[in-house]
Design a protein that fits this description.
Elements lengths: L18 H12 L8 E9 L5 E9 L8 E5 L9 H12 L4 E4 L20 H10 L9 E6 L1 H13 L6 E7 L5 H7 L6 H15 L8 H9 L3 H12 L5 H8 L12 E6 L8 H4 L9 E6 L8 E2 L2 E2 H13 L3
Parallel strand pairs: 3-4, 3-5, 5-6, 6-7, 7-8
Antiparallel strand pairs: 1-2, 2-4, 9-10
Helix pairs in contact: 3-4, 7-8, 8-9
Length: 328
């Protein structure tokens, strides 16, 4: 299902990235992208109400286009401003004349030094505060928030919470988002996802307990013992954030039940063969019931993949969406 309003052709895989696994592994195999030559980058620090501060890279295009919104990029689990998909998106958006903020979520990358807390999939208020903290000169045309994987759930949750009272936020984009958090963590327990979970868990735990993190000894011990995300969320995430259980945390923070409340344009890109995030929750959504939703649901593409003969296909979908939903 590809929303007809976008006029977007079907996704086609390209060699050697055939199948969900290889589509997904392309990003870590390629590594980091070089800095874009089409922008001037500067550091930006945004305060949060509890004293933590979010760091980001602000990429200003060499040829800005008046009337185009700033695009805020929110990374996935264990990601940072330098994740390959963040740099690829920024380079493409800069070429279109957009200012881009590659934001490090709470406790991630450069934000770690100024954060006692840590991000999770439902921490939408951090994005709300970050957008509010941007100076008016940066956002004369508003903001589009794009989230990758975990960050995709966060931006959709934010859009559902604010409804039509969006203020600066004009649209959101979610790529490979785990809109049902419990289903995703259970999916990672399956044998075929063992490698993904092991790698993500190792990276995430190292970041979570790094110097600067405000954690009790009991929570640090629980984090050290957790070998999967179900256990981690039950013994660390839930108690740290005031939830009685992992199930309670998942229910409160997944975006699935908030999609119907979204009132600003929302592009949602997801592949059936995603080995990390299960596709089944997407089948439960009545996409036609909410015209604010722009579903782009494909058979192939993997997780934050979509590598096709003409390049990264989700970038083409993003451009079509911006042209249709936010012309100018």
């Amino acid at each position: 299902m590809i929303d007809a309003r976008l006029g977007l052709g079907p996704f086609r895989q390209r060699l050697p990235w055939l199948g969900g696994t290889l589509q997904t592994l392309r990003n870590p195999l390629i590594g980091r992208a070089p800095p874009s030559a089409g922008c001037r980058s500067e550091r930006l620090v945004l305060p949060l109400s509890d004293g933590d501060r979010l760091h980001g890279a602000l990429d200003r295009p060499l040829r800005p286009v008046a009337g185009r919104p700033l695009v805020l990029l929110a990374h996935g689990l264990a990601g940072t401003e330098d994740s390959l998909y963040m740099r690829e998106a920024s380079a493409r958006l800069n070429a279109r004349g957009h200012v881009v903020l590659r934001l490090n979520l709470r406790g991630a990358g450069p934000s770690r030094a100024d954060c006692r807390g840590h991000y999770h999939a439902g921490r939408s208020d951090d994005l709300r505060q970050a957008i509010a903290a941007l100076t008016p000169m940066l956002v004369p045309a508003g903001v589009v928030a794009m989230g990758f994987s975990l960050g995709g759930n966060t931006v959709l949750k934010l859009a559902g919470e604010i409804g039509a009272e969006a203020g600066r936020l004009r649209a959101v984009v979610a790529l490979s988002a785990p809109i049902d958090l419990q289903a995703t963590t259970l999916n990672l327990m399956r044998r075929r996802a063992t490698l993904y979970q092991a790698v993500m868990m190792r990276q995430f735990k190292a970041e979570y307990v790094a110097p600067g993190a405000e954690l009790s000894e009991a929570l640090r011990a629980a984090a050290a013992l957790a070998t999967n995300f179900v256990r981690f969320d039950q013994t660390v995430t839930a108690p740290r954030h005031g939830y009685p259980s992992a199930a309670g945390f998942y229910a409160a923070n997944g975006a699935l039940d908030r999609l119907g409340q979204i009132r600003i344009p929302a592009l949602v890109i997801m592949a059936e063969d995603d080995p990390v995030v299960p596709f089944a929750p997407y089948r439960r959504v009545d996409w036609a019931a909410n015209p604010a939703l722009y579903p782009v649901l494909t058979r192939r593409g993997g997780h934050v993949g979509f590598h096709g003969p003409e390049g990264i296909w989700w970038l083409a979908a993003l451009e079509r969406f911006l042209d249709h939903a936010i012309p100018g």
